[in-house]
Give the backbone structure.
Amino acid sequence: GAGVSQSPSNKVTEKGKDVELRCDPISGHTALYWYRQRLGQGLEFLIYFQGNSAPDKSGLPSDRFSAERTGESVSTLTIQRTQQEDSAVYLCASSLTRGTYNEQFFGPGTRLTVL
Amino acid sequence: RKEVEQDPGPFNVPEGATVAFNCTYSNSASQSFFWYRQDCRKEPKLLMSVYSSGNEDGRFTAQLNRASQYISLLIRDSKLSDSATYLCVVLTAGRDDKIIFGKGTRLHILP
């Protein structure tokens, strides 16, 4: 069956531009997560959705970052006025629901490079 | 103290050897634990959940020590294909469930 997909797979942008990253979770998965992983570093939690709601936005690094989810499906992570420190792989994951022992399935990530 | 801590490694281990690494967590209320595996430039994938009584999956054994607040992963008869980064994941249930990934332990299996 289809897994989590993300687009684009690679994005190169100039400092100051806005970017939109898309995540298509596994159908029927109500929980969706966004993480950031800088080169050689661990996963940094950004935000999660339960349905279309985002109860925990504590991980968003600044107000330049926002995310939305519609139809309990697709999610978009938007970064405004990108900075070089935003360069990283942005990973999306989904799980059946948010709770114990629910495996997170990860997409392949979007590699963002800000010049 | 960090919420989830792992020795970053790398652990360089000859093929066929046994290797173990730990992950410590700071919140005693944490209740679910997992090991994920991440290959170079790939996404993380679930390796195994960690149950209170400890569990085994083939060459892999996971254990939980609540008193000392750590989980462990032991790999027996290591294979070259075991080379990867192993991420510890801790879930703390509450009003807002919190899922925290450790930064990972890098493992290199040497031929």
Observations:
- Chain A has no helices and eleven strands.
- The mean pLDDT of chain A is 92.
- The first strand of chain A starts at residue 5 and ends at 7.
